[in-house]
Amino acid sequence: MSLLILYQAVTLTAQDDPLSAANEAERSSTLRRSAHVSNLRFYTKVPHPRVSPTGFTTAPMFVKSAGFRVTNVQMKTTHKIAAARWMYRAVRAGRSLLGRSDRQIAIRNGIKYDLDLAQGIDFAIYLANIYERQTRATLRALVKPASLVLDIGANVGAHTLHLAHLVGPEGRVLAFEPTDFAYHKLIRNLKLNPGLQKRVIPFHCFLTGRDAGPVPAAVYSSWPLKNESDLHAKHLGREMGTGAAQARRLDDVLTQFPDLRVQLVKLDVDGYECDVLRGAPKLIKDVKPIFVMELAPYVLEERGTSLEELLSYFIPNGYRFFDDGRGKALPSSAAELRRMVSDGACINAIARAQ
After folding, report:
1. What is the pTM of this model?
2. Which of 154, 171, 211, 354 is 20 to 30 A distant from 76 in Cα terms?
3. For residue 19, which of 173, 165, 155, 200 has the smallest C-alpha distance?
């Protein structure tokens, strides 16, 4: 990391907006040239998406870990987290010299966040809002104004607030988050953006096959950048409690909005995808919204499900999967998809009914 980018990261203040028109070009260029660790580009700048006739962006495919993306799908998550931790330690040391803590109110892309820089997602937002940039580009290309969209696995609201901006004043976002930790951060970030908050309906619940069913005691929703014990062996996340969350069935939740038709679903629940889909047969069969999601065989298997089960909710209902960057069709076979993804990695995909 160059001294310039380190200086910029350390000296950001509450009023700094790295993606403002005046600042974006210079910061993006600097980050693009400089943010390397061990000859690995920490992220690649994604331009405003170009949309193909099928509605897909033409940017490259990425792999995710705590919000940081790289262009090599075979890279182990542990290596990406190690790079994020190195950057965090450098920024933290510089901020300490200026008397600043890990807490920061920051404005990114016109949206205000209450950030804890020791958390991977928050730190990625802080660093010029690099958190899942490709996913944001995909959502920007696909979400229609005045539509109803779902953010399932909303976490701190990074995509929730972006979606609220995209749907506009006539649209609505339903945001679902089961962990107390992330839900409280989501509510805090919504309150910091009252104009967008009016467009979001948050649900503190765990989506599953039936209402009032069992809820896992803890779900992964924290990716700490400080060295801690008892983290996930591959993605290095920490499970957080779900004490206040109730089990809900998605189709039943949607009956509260009979006049609204779901246009798009962002689904990112780290292995609980099949739990969500078991409660959404009507949504998938009759409404057929676009799904923006991850295909990660290893986390599905950890939850006792499989890529085969995940595909069984989509393929018989006329869906096909596409690479969310290039728009290239992905195989409909679980065996073929599994061969494309190394252990501990994922593919970011779009599922669309044909």
Report:
1. 0.83
2. 154
3. 165
What does the DSSP 8-state code read for residue 45? -
Q: Which two tokens stand for residue 228?
A: 């801690």
- Cβ neighbours of residue 174 closer than 8 Å, sequence gap 6 or more: 148, 149, 150, 151, 200, 201, 203, 253, 257
Contacting residues for 335 by C-beta, under 8 A, at least 6 apart: none
- Condensed to tens digits (0 to 9), the pLDDT of residues 196-205 reads 999 999 999 9
Confidence of residue 227 (pLDDT cuts 50, 70, 90): confident
CB 296 within 8 A of CB 345: yes
Confidence of residue 191 (pLDDT cuts 50, 70, 90): very high
Query: Hey, what are 78's tokens?
Result: 């542990």
Q: Which helix (H) or strand (E) covers residue 86, if one does?
A: helix 77-97
- Between the CA of residue 260 and those of 144, 146, 149, 254, what are the distances in Å? 13, 10, 10, 9
Is residue 14 very low, low, confident or very high in pLDDT (cuts 50, 70, 90)?
A: low
Euclidean distance between the first and final Cα of the chain, in Å? 45
pLDDT for 63 beyond 60: no
Residue type present at position 144: K
Q: How far apart are CA 16 and CA 155, in angstroms?
A: 23
The pLDDT confidence band at residue 27, using thresholds 50, 70 and 90, is: very low
- Integer Cα distance of 197 and 284 in angstroms: 27
pLDDT reported for residue 20: 44
* pLDDT at residue 46 tops 50: no
Average model confidence (pLDDT) for the chain? 83
Q: What is the third-level CATH fold of 3-353? A: Rossmann fold (3.40.50)
User: How open is the CA angle 236-163-78, to the nearest 5 degrees?
Assistant: 15
Q: How far is it, in rounded angstroms, from Cα 236 to Cα 325?
A: 25
Alpha-carbon separation of residue 172 from 73, 114, 167 (angstroms): 34, 23, 7
Find all residues with CB under 8 Å of 175, minimum gap 6, and list them: 150, 151, 154, 157, 160, 186, 200, 201, 202, 203
